[in-house]
Input
Amino acid sequence: EPEVTQTPSHQVTQMGQEVILRCVPISNHLYFYWYRQILGQKVEFLVSFYNNEISEKSEIFDDQFSVERPDGSNFTLKIRSTKLEDSAMYFCASSVRGANYGYTFGSGTRLTVV
Amino acid sequence: GENVEQHPSTLSVQEGDSAVIKCTYSDSASNYFPWYKQELGKRPQLIIDIRSNVGEKKDQRIAVTLNKTAKHFSLHITETQPEDSAVYFCAAVPNFGNEKLTFGTGTRLTIIP
Output
């Protein structure tokens, strides 16, 4: 079964540092997403990406966040200057036809900001 | 925006019994309602979904019902097994073309052997 792959699985970073979280969506999927989940809480939407541009973003996705699809396979989330409250599990997801047809989530990157 | 409420937050049932998890949503334009199962430290996995033109859907021991008028949808697991123990999240997509899944707060289901 095709999978969404995320790297690294765990990243520890100093507050104020930049981090890049990487994702390889399923190859024939056209819609890409980032979500985060603070420990013990629900999954929260960050951003959706289609046709090489952001289609929707949440209030959480402020100027410190950016996404990029640098080539035909990778989809990245960059946090420019990490804060303690950015510590969470970050999930990438992809969908072949959009949110109404279901997502496949990656295994997540646990980001710890110290 | 869409708001999804989920109850209960925790649920313990004896193995073999049924479990029911309920969600309500606020946006009457929502038209797609998936359910995800998340085991500890793992990714959410889609287990069943329902669209607004359908009232009920079943897949083996799992069923989902939707009441559009009341804006309720529920997950039913019958003949529960220990491997059903996990956190379950309901979600809603506010309207076609909106790419955001709004998740409920989750239900921790524990199956007691």
Summary: Residues 37 and 43 of chain A are 5 Å apart (CA to CA). The radius of gyration of chain A is 13 Å.
